[in-house]
Amino acid sequence: MNKTYAGIGNREISGAKDGDHGLPVAKVLTHLGIELEKLGYTLYSGGAKGCDSAFASGVSPEHCRIFSADDATDETRAMARAHKLPSEILLGRKLDLYAREANQILGADLQSPVDFVLCYTRDGCESHETRSEKTGGTGYAIELASRRCIPVINVRNKGWEEKLKTILTNSIFAPM
């Protein structure tokens, strides 16, 4: 365990509620950032408005790694292109924004994957199999994680809190 997680999701979350408590998503994500930092976790995110910003607002800078379009490399761009992105995204800054999502899931070196992904999407997507147009740009990061068997927890869905508790309990008792 790297004690890292990706905190990602839709940019538009006003009015959105979590699946377990009916609380505003922004409030839930900020609270999760605070609590995960207390457990020693570091947030990997993209700095976008909405979910990314909500997570980051609860985390101190030393426990937060924000990847930007400037972090895109030839390797992350190639990875993004391989995921059949719409043609208007395959060039320039838009491609770099997608390419940086590989770092959010796999780390700066692309060899240090996060322990899990916490997210919010309007469709509740948690895997490459359930990805839809409603998943938005977050779908690429979810697909990267899912295809590598990295757990994805979407706070839109009922039961998200129990899934997170299971992951955290397993990480506490994982062999060193």
Give keywords.
alpha/beta, single chain, 6 helices, 5-stranded parallel sheet
Beta-strand percentage?
Answer: 5-15%
Strand order, main sheet: write it out. 3-2-1-4-5
Helix tally equals 6
Shape verdict: globular
In terms of per-residue confidence, which ranges show pLDDT below 50 for 5 or more consecutive residues? Answer: none
- Give the termini separation: 9 Å
Largest sheet: 5 strands, parallel
Structure report:
With 176 residues, this protein is of the alpha/beta class. The protein has 6 helices and 5 strands, in the order E-H-E-H-E-H-H-E-H-E-H. It has helices spanning 25-38, 51-57, 74-81, 92-106, 138-147, 160-172, and strands at residues 4-9, 42-45, 64-66, 116-120, 152-154. Strands 3-2-1-4-5 form a 5-stranded parallel beta sheet, with helices on both faces. Helix 2 links the parallel strand 2 (42-45) and strand 3. Helix 1 (25-38) packs across helix 2, helix 3 (74-81) packs across helix 4 and helix 4 (92-106) runs parallel beside helix 5. The chain is globular. The relative contact order is 0.18. The mean pLDDT is 91.
Describe the structure in brief.
Helices cover 38% and strands 12% of the residues.
